[in-house]
Design a protein that fits this description.
Helices cover about 25% and strands about 25% of the residues. By secondary structure, it is of the alpha/beta class.
């Protein structure tokens, strides 16, 4: 397992930790966080599973960011990398009639990030966010730091506050 790189001002000066909109949000919030860089294999499309394996972190602590349309609204869903999103549960959580995964190009355009590097933090446009309830028991969780091959680790409570998220059970049983 790679040792975490310290957060805050140190992360900006550490050559391996990229400066992204997500890290700028974290730094400006003055919370405790750590950056974790790993080598992304361009042939891999299961980005979250790759992160969990590369960082040697249990899969239930590494969360992926999915962009979803619920009725006519673009939303962010944050769920464990090994789980599937329950679109019905998400629709119910946001009082929508139906939900579907968003178009990749739309997700990239609205967030300012590329697929596989979409962070729930520092998106170009703000979106209502729902974080799966399974995040709450963990002392920290990992989410994309805004680039493929870069995750940030922070407390679930800080993630909720920084994304103004609601918390609900949104993974498939």
């Amino acid at each position: 397992m790679r040792a975490p790189v310290p957060s805050g001002a140190v992360s900006r000066s550490a050559p391996r930790i990229p400066a992204t909109p997500a890290t700028r949000v974290l730094d400006s919030a003055r919370i405790t966080w750590s950056g974790h860089v790993y080598t992304h294999d361009p042939a891999v499309t299961a980005y979250g599973l790759e992160a969990a394996t590369a960082l040697d972190v249990p899969m239930d602590r590494v969360f992926k960011t999915l962009m979803v349309t619920a009725d006519d609204e673009l939303l962010v869903a944050v769920i464990p990398v090994a789980e599937r999103l329950d679109l019905g549960a998400l629709a119910s959580a946001v009082s929508a009639k139906r939900a579907a995964l968003a178009d990749r190009a739309l997700a990239e355009r609205r967030t300012g990030y590329v697929a596989g590097g979409i962070s729930p933090l520092g998106q170009k446009h703000s979106h209502r966010t729902v974080i799966d309830a399974s995040a709450e028991p963990h002392p920290t969780v990992f989410v994309s730091g805004g680039r493929r091959g870069f995750d940030v680790e922070l407390s679930p409570a800080d993630l909720v506050v920084l994304t103004n998220a609601s918390v609900s059970a949104i993974t498939a049983p």
